[in-house]
Amino acid sequence: MRICVLPGDGIGPEIIAQALRVLQSLDLEFETEQALLGGCAVDAVGDPFPEATRKLALAADAVLLGAVGGPKWDALPRELRPERGLLGIRKLLGLFANLRPAVLYPELANASTLKPEVVAGLDILIVRELTGDIYFGQPRGIETREIDGLPRRVGVNTMIYSEEEIRRIGKVAFEAARKRQRKLCSVDKINVLETTQLWRDVMNELAPAYPDVELTHMLVDNAAMQLVRAPRQFDVIVTGNMFGDILSDEASMLTGSIGMLPSASLDETGKGLYEPCHGSAPDIAGKDAANPLATILSVAMMLRYSFALEDAAGRIENAVKSVLKRGLRTGDIYEPGTTKVGTAEMGNAVLEALQEGR
Ligand code: NAD
User: Fold this and answer.
1) What are phi and psi of 266, to 5 degrees?
2) Would you say the CB of residue 296 lies under 6 angstroms from ligand 1?
3) Do 220 and 189 meet the contact criterion of CB atoms below 8 Å apart?
4) Which residue's CA is minimally distant from atom 8 of ligand 1?
């Protein structure tokens, strides 16, 4: 297992350090190599996605990323912004499947804006297609057309999916459902959009190959409502790039704790990039205040999805549950009556729980 580690900016190095300690404690055979991505790479070599990082990312079996960006680099020209590094690596690696779990641990039920009885125990996985749809379809742009005899500006985007693109994301979603509660809900808008009629047809064509998974369909407007009305009805949701962008943010906000949410982005071979859903949190960088659990849980996803080490992934997830049960909290998830700890102390607690097999 060759793992390319990209700590990035802001709290990135602090949370990655804790995630690596957890990984190293597992007695697995792997090599890690660190490289620069984002603002730190701009500072060091004048490029948010340097050639050395490209080579390392291509050669690795998985990439573990902290976060990039910060106000220091906001005034730079677009091609030098840290986000360019992020988009660059996603494109280079052909990451078409984005997996975002939204898990609300019972101990953190008060962090949600929804009533605890609606969300406690929530455990959803959103599988979002990441490289197609209206975000990339051609033609696109703002142009002038003659309308009613007058020149008018029009904005144009094209929603397009080929059946191959739908099939490959569908397979990822069915496979993921098999590792969970075996329920897959495909979200579309077939009452208005032909592209999504094809989406639904292809999902139905895939279903017979996964007889153990229950496939259902839902219109996107209803899915947005159901996520706040009765979110626990969902296990895995699969949807296109634009609907997935919106629904995955909605689902993650149900948990109310951004410092807890990991993510995976996969290519066709299962190689993946693993990162927390949050950004570089410049406001708390260097203060030992960041929650490292999203990054530690991203390591668990890496072991599960890129290396098929389900047992090791489950051990990390159990250790995280155990430190929450013990009442340990970083500032972002702190409530009166619990114990506030820093980034490193939270890392220590996860390590202890792992060693004790809790
Ligand atoms: P952010 O996620 O960095 O921070 C939002 C709020 O959540 C802040 O108050 C922050 O302190 C808090 N927070 C985030 N992660 C936390 C953690 N692990 N523990 C405790 N608190 C945490 O979002 P933002 O402030 O909008 O963006 C800051 C920078 O991060 C920007 O430059 C943005 O472009 C970048 N960003 C990067 C990524 C990425 O690398 N994938 C994603 C989003 C934003």
Assistant:
1) -115, 150
2) no
3) yes
4) 281
pLDDT at 302: 97
Residue ID of nearest Cα to ligand 1 atom 44: 279
1-96+267-358: in CATH 3.40.718.10 = yes
pLDDT of residue 358: 65
Counting as low any pLDDT under 50, the low residues of the chain are none
CA distances from 96 to 125, 239, 260, 295 (A): 16, 12, 23, 21
- The pair of structure tokens assigned to 327 is 């009442």
In short, whether 48's Cβ falls inside 6 Å of ligand 1 is no
Nearest to 48 by CA among 20, 71, 76: 76
List, by residue number, the catalytic residues.
135, 189, 221, 245, 249
CB of 284 closer than 6 A to ligand 1? yes
Residues of the chain with CATH 3.40.718.10: 1-96+267-358, 102-260
Closest CA to 96 of 240, 265, 277, 269: 265
Q: Which fold is adopted by the domain 102-260?
A: Isopropylmalate Dehydrogenase (3.40.718)
SS (H, E, C) the chain: CEEEEEEECCCHHHHHHHHHHHHHCCCCCCEEEECCCCHHHHHHHCCCCCHHHHHHHHHCCEEEEEECCCHHHCCCCHHHCHHHHHHHHHHHCCCCEEEEEEECCHHHHHHCCCCHHHHCCCEEEEEEECCCHHHCCCCCEEEEEEECCEEEEEEECCCCCCHHHHHHHHHHHHHHHHCCCCEEEEEECCCCCHHHHHHHHHHHHHHHHCCCCEEEEEEHHHHHHHHHHCHHHCCEEEECHHHHHHHHHHHHHHHCCHHHCEEEEECCCCCEEEEECCCCCHHHCCCCCCCCHHHHHHHHHHHHHCCCCHHHHHHHHHHHHHHHHCCEECHHHCCCCCEECCHHHHHHHHHHHHHCCC
Query: Ligand 1: which residue has its CA nearest to atom 27?
Result: 279
